[in-house]
Amino acid sequence: MTLILASKSASRRAMLDAAGVAYESIPADIDERAVEAGLAGASPPEIAEALAVAKAAAVAALHPQALVLGSDSLVDCAGRRFDKPQSREEAGEHLRFFSGKVMELHSAAALVRGGGCEWSHASIARLHVRDLSEEFIEHYLALEWPAIGHTVGAFRIEGPGVQLFDHIEGDQFTVLGMPLLPLLGALREAGVLIA
What we know:
Blueprint: E1 3-5, H1 10-19, E2 24-25, H2 32-37, H3 44-60, E3 67-77, E4 80-82, H4 88-98, E5 102-113, E6 116-129, H5 134-144, E7 165-169, H6 172-176, H7 180-189
Parallel strand pairs: 1-2, 1-3
Antiparallel strand pairs: 3-4, 3-5, 5-6, 6-7
Helix pairs in contact: 4-5
């Protein structure tokens, strides 16, 4: 059975590669804001899960015989949702807001075949951001921009972004953008992986 990853995310590809999962990568092209507009009142994990399903469904519509994996992550901090920063200045604003607070990172995955979602799951990681000095923020942005422009939370945990945090609750896979362990279980159930 063909598994398609509906994403161009390097970290999601790296997780699947490291876990020994065979797949093709065909990025989904959806209007995420339009999907979110229909989710008024939904919680952050519900929104992440709905976006993961929407991405998988968009690719599954073009490849109905394949099992399609969609994934999404979003950040909530002090009741405010954050998307990927659009500029270095906006990344700095995000970091100043996160300083000294707990960032909640919601990562979701969904498996869609044909017209139906067969499985979906959302996980949360709580990242305790240390007090960030202006000097650190400027130094960090000089190192990491524009690479962090495609990340929610303006960090790559596998790079200098790890310096933002005092403490992390949750698994590394959720922080990297996909609830891998529940996903592997679902892939075994679907017959993609050997049980």
